[in-house]
Amino acid sequence: MLSVEDDIEVVGEAGTAADALVRIPATRPDVAVLDVRLPDGSGVEVCREVRSQNEDIKCLMLTSFADDEALFDAIMAGASGYVLKAIRGSELLSAVRDVAAGKSLLDPVATARVLERLRAGNSAKGDQRLANLTEQERKILDLIGEGLTNRVIGERLHLAEKTIKNYVSSLLSKLGMERRSQAAAYVARMQAEERR
Fold first, then answer.
1. Residue bearing the bigger pLDDT, 86 or 169
2. pTM over 0.70
3. Torsions phi, psi of 35, nearest 5?
4. I need a surface site. Which of 14, 22, 96, 97 has the fewest CB within 10 A?
């Protein structure tokens, strides 16, 4: 479907995460269309790895399931879009073109559910857990909220990626969280409350 379009050129295909991690850097596409669930791993992990090596490559995630955690994980990995496989062919073509043009694209149904979950979440205003974070951990939490990878955060703060990883582990522990996606959702909730 993609290859018959005049303005789209398919430069490669891969059936596994391992194959994708070799083919994508080699072919350097403008957009990588990734299945969230691959036979040997996660398309989200492929996205994170590809984006940490080359931020010019945009990732469009395709999934059969409207899974909030996978959506958060995809956002945290730097995906530009997340659409359900039930999407019509013409909409998929539009999605690829929009992501290639630099637009952020999230499936409206999935996005509505995530926003609902954020609204229903506990109030972050005056959250005592934030007081436990150091100034550096607060900065890193805000950058996680922007969807940046550890490597990019390290570059911004002039610190080693391993150091950032340690800070992330520490701040997640202090916030009582296990995953970056939870921290990103927490930041989004705080920002939404500040705008109210």
1. 169
2. no
3. -75, 135
4. 22
